[in-house]
């Protein structure tokens, strides 16, 4: 079993920066778990504290139910893959992969056989005698993964594993990583600031802010129902529209001069309550003619997304983005309306989702 439990985990760096502030997480055995959040929120510190590369200031790290908080990295039985892969430039692929086995004093022949076996699983057979400088970014990443796998660790810790690859390689490597994790059924914690990557790869995602976990959920949960405006503002390939409004009679919300449907949350609130009105650009319907229950404004920006367009309307309700299909003609400078899909509207009160 290799579940990872973090209990009120804190880390204050010398100098007084609180990088982790009482983190509670229960990562299941075999789970692919992503830590997501803006730069400086504590993702890398959390990963390094699980690995034992940073000492916790408070709380505990449990791996497979064992308290490893006081153990050095080498005795935690987890493998970390770094952003820059940290391969030894003077060693061949085989020697890089076999390195952790050498540290564990596995004999030469057995070491090479095991390294070749792992390399085979990752499609590296043809590259065994090359050095890192003679490999592509994607191949280097596989060597780093193979090195991590060679000792059969209880968990993989991956720090931005795809960030050094170009856009196309990234997609390939993403699919590869997901397949590998499924086959190995190994617990995997990975750090990314790329929310699309987190949603695509992970079984569950934790959104972090200022050393705290703000929401844990499946990709569908955090996308559909972000628990707070912080998570709402950075999950989704186009950010959610978040607009200040006030609840009106009949479950509607006033946002500037617009009166729009308040969605499921409105029933729990009273007329006059201030709210933040949340609706994703995908859940607004564009109209070129005046229509009721809609935001209105002037089209100021049209961005081509390939199979759709992202249109920005500026009006008295604020600046609102709408995803519009590729066949609809949208001209900057014209008046337009955006109708929210009522069942997808989210209301936030004091930053928290109204259930
Ligand atoms: P990024 O996405 O930019 O890598 P992150 O979410 O991984 O950021 P961390 O690297 O964990 O964030 O840093 C969390 C906080 O701790 C930041 O404020 C950072 O400046 C601080 N920090 C990190 N390492 C140290 C250190 N060795 N000494 C002091 N402060 C540190």
From TrEMBL:
GO cellular component, one term: ATP-binding cassette (ABC) transporter complex, substrate-binding subunit-containing
Alphabetized UniProt keyword annotations: ATP-binding, Cell membrane, Membrane, Nucleotide-binding, Translocase, Transport
UniProt keyword Nucleotide-binding, yes or no: yes
GO function term, MF aspect, one: ATP binding
Family annotation (InterPro entries): AAA+_ATPase (IPR003593), ABC_transporter-like_ATP-bd (IPR003439), ABC_transporter-like_CS (IPR017871), ABC_transpr_MalK/UgpC-like (IPR047641), Mo/tungstate-bd_C_term_dom (IPR008995), NA-bd_OB-fold (IPR012340), P-loop_NTPase (IPR027417), Transp-assoc_OB_typ2 (IPR013611)
Pfam families: ABC_tran, TOBE_2
Domain ABC transporter positions: 4-235
Domain of life: Bacteria
Designated name of the protein: ABC transporter ATP-binding protein
